[in-house]
Design a protein that fits this description.
Layout: H1 3-7, E1 16-25, E2 28-38, E3 43-47, H2 54-61, E4 69-74, E5 77-78, H3 84-90, E6 92-95, H4 107-111, H5 126-139, H6 155-168, E7 173-177, H7 185-200, E8 204-209, H8 212-218, E9 221-226, E10 229-230
Parallel strand pairs: 3-8, 3-9, 6-7, 7-8
Antiparallel strand pairs: 1-2, 1-4, 4-5, 9-10
């Protein structure tokens, strides 16, 4: 080993390790022996055409379905979620291409839906909800009133609210499913800037896309799926 190699820092252990994961549906193999790793503060690109197996892997990681075989290690512990809430409790949050915000609710209500802060009498503390929301949305560069209805926001702003909600859950790994599909070039650049900021904060991101040029611009490493296998 050369002196330079000896002095080089060893890579941090993976936050997420997918080891030989296979998923079968009624005789059809959607994923076959897939392995990958994501480290803290890293953006991993997951690329592949439609039908490559990306959505199946996302559903497994987010607790929607179990793998047929293989295992998943998260923060050094085997990870067997029974539902998406199990994944969220550990800090794995998935933002799907079809945003899950409720248009008639405010930004603050969407961020803290089902988890509203309570006051001394056990009632919802609207002031604290808006204050906490203001702090969180500032992290994603969104300068809006938390009392704004989501229906009044652009698609790009709604996506940032989704990311803000993920951060409010103390996410350690955010999985973004085709996040740029409905964005303009300017909005894509802003999203990538936010992703870079989250990386500096130590948040791991899995960026799922079929656009190689975008993945090349922001990702530290890339994994490519083809027909359910690592390409």
């Amino acid at each position: 080993m050369s002196p330079a190699e000896a002095a080089a820092p060893s890579p941090s252990p993976p936050l997420l390790a997918v080891e030989g994961v296979t998923k079968r549906f009624a005789g059809v193999t959607a994923l076959s022996d897939v392995s990958l790793e994501v480290r803290p503060g890293e953006i991993l690109g997951l690329l592949g055409e439609n039908g490559a197996g990306k959505s199946t892997l996302l559903k497994i990681l987010s607790g929607v379905m179990p793998p047929s075989s293989g295992r998943i290690i998260f923060d050094g512990v085997e990870f067997n979620p029974h539902n998406p809430q199990d994944a969220k409790r550990l800090g794995i949050v998935t933002i799907y291409q079809e945003l899950s915000l409720i248009p008639t609710l405010t930004v603050a209500e969407n961020i803290f839906i089902g988890r509203a802060p309570l006051g001394p009498l056990g009632l919802v503390s609207w002031r604290k909800m808006e204050e906490d929301s203001r702090t969180i949305i500032a992290r994603v560069g969104l300068n809006i009133d938390p009392a704004t209805p989501v229906s009044a926001l652009s698609v790009a702003e709604q996506q940032l609210v989704e990311i803000a909600r993920a951060l409010s859950l103390k996410s350690r790994l955010i999985i973004m499913d085709e996040p740029t599909s409905a964005l303009t070039e300017t909005e894509v650049q802003k999203l990538m800037s936010i992703m870079g900021r989250l990386r500096k904060d130590g948040v791991a991101i899995m960026f799922v896309t079929h656009r190689l040029e975008e993945a090349s611009a922001i990702c530290d490493r890339m994994t490519v799926l083809r027909d359910g296998r690592l390409a």
